Amino acid sequence: MQRRTRVRRGVSASLAMIATGTTWAVVGPGSASAIEPTAPTVTWVACPAYSDAVLDAVVPGRLEQTRALVQRMECGTVSVPMDYRDPGGRQITVAVTRIRATDQAHRLGSLAFNPGGPGGSGYLTPVRVAVANASTARLNERYDLIGFDPRGVGNSTKVTCAMPPPVVTPPGPLTEETARRLYDAAADANAACVRTDPAFLAQVNTPNVARDLDRVRAALGERRLSYVGVSWGTRLGLVYRTLFPAAVGRMFLDSVLPTWFVNDALDDGQAAAQERQFLRLAAWMAERNDVYGFGRTTDEVRAAVIDMQRDYDANPRTFTDLPMPLDAGLIAQAGSQLAVNWPMFAEVLAQLRDATGPTAPPAVRKLLLGGDPRPDVPADMPELYNKTMEQATVCGDDPARPDFTAVWATFQRRIADNPVAGRGLQMNLRCAGWSVPGHSFSARRTGAPVALAGHRHELVTPYEWALQAHAVAGGTLLTVDDDVHGSVYQAADCADDLLSYLTTGRLAPQCDGLQS
């Protein structure tokens, strides 16, 4: 859709964005027209040099394949307006990568990727996807694989605010007094962040990233762009599909967010999913009561765990080999465990119940202190995530700025609604003190192709969000029968479905995903 703008010769006028990704250039008064469309272009540059340590960290265990793909990768930038309401104003750059299709004779076009976030770097995502398994590798036969860093991330124009020091909280349930200190600290840090570049941060939101992506499409010379997004990348995909339906080739979205974006409602959905996951764990433990001893029914296990939480909050335990006392917050993590981790965490719960000190039980110590030391992050590791971009986007997409009283009341209600998982939740402090306004944008139904993959027992993007997006936006729904966020790339049968959809348009209704 194009907003019409009257332009008088010799008089400057504000120029509006149009949906095709084309911008407008004002030309001289002697020309045939006062404005002419100019297509965006990619400025191709030398790619960054990556050490083997970086490549091995980006895709562990696949160094030779990763190195070969990086050697084929092309890198560039696309200039975009910072504010699409003022396309002739300040310009910023979006960094892009391309790995050309190996079968150019049967090329289907360009396929762009976003790994999620918001705040995740997509610069090397084509490399990760192409080495994930045999099916995803075949995507590069007929597609040019396109990566990009959204505005605010990595090699694109960005702002990176300093993270404030954490506020130390005493063990036990969060008190209102401590909660207010947390709120005030978050508000001060957010206000300071906004002051670094308020004009830019006000324009970091999902619709603008979608507009940037369409500029990338146009710069690549593609009439249509195919797309794969995970997590927040699904919101970006649905917004792009709403704004630019004619520009969509095939779109596949894994671990789907709803068509709307409201921080408190998203937190409610995740909390409820964690509580459901605990009930699944409790049923599993009940079947193994001879091993764990919490009860022979789901209700008995649930009651025993809630009693443990009350006891640990009233009497936090101190162990000589742990740096902090333990309260019910650790027990609440039972609701956030994937099925593959149930044996480990059921043992943690049993050892916490029976602990007498003075040292921590072995399973608890391993959980909190880890086993093998984590590998060192290479000194030349590129930015893979930008927290400031995440902050700006979640506040840019949700205009709500609740005060402390509202935040505290919502937090208390969420704990009451989720007796086990709720004890481990955090208050929603994301937009406290964030002074630039946000704007709601809900994705809508269009005729553009889209496939949505929802995971039946997922915690990060619960399955009901995929159902909601499917009901509103349309398309085809793939149900993944696991609890693993964004597992389509990793699970062989689901990756087969991804390849089938992107190359033929056909999609099965269900895949198994990653099983424990």
Description:
The chain is an alpha/beta fold. It is built from 18 helices and twelve strands. It has a ten-stranded mixed β-sheet with strand order 3-4-5-7-6-8-9-10-11-12, with helices on both faces. Helix 4 packs parallel to helix 18, helix 7 crosses helix 8 and helix 9 crosses helix 11. The longest helix has 24 residues. The N terminus is likely disordered.
Describe the structure concisely for a colleague:
With 516 residues, this protein is α/β, with parallel strands linked by helices.
Write the layout of secondary structure elements.
Blueprint: E1 23-26, E2 35-38, E3 42-45, H1 52-58, H2 63-72, E4 74-81, E5 91-99, E6 109-114, H3 125-132, H4 134-142, E7 143-149, H5 176-196, H6 198-201, H7 206-219, E8 225-231, H8 232-243, E9 248-256, H9 263-286, H10 289-292, H11 298-314, H12 328-332, H13 342-354, H14 362-369, H15 387-396, H16 404-417, E10 451-455, H17 463-473, E11 476-480, H18 492-504, E12 510-511
Parallel strand pairs: 6-7, 6-8, 8-9, 9-10, 10-11, 11-12
Antiparallel strand pairs: 1-2, 3-4, 4-5, 5-7
Helix pairs in contact: 2-3, 3-4, 4-18, 7-8, 9-11, 13-14
Q: What average pLDDT do the residues reach? A: 91
Quaternary structure annotation: single chain
Report the uncertain regions.
Answer: 1-37
What composes the largest sheet?
10 strands, mixed
> What is the helical fraction, as a range of percent?
25-40%
- The fraction of residues assigned to DSSP E strands is 5-15%
Rg, nearest Å: 25 Å
Strand-pairing-aware structural class: alpha/beta
Q: Going across the major beta sheet, what is the strand order?
A: 3-4-5-7-6-8-9-10-11-12
What is the ordering of alpha helices and beta strands?
A: EEEHHEEEHHEHHHEHEHHHHHHHHEHEHE
Shape: globular
Q: What is the rounded distance between the termini?
A: 48 Å
Number of helices: 18
Tally of DSSP β-strands: 12
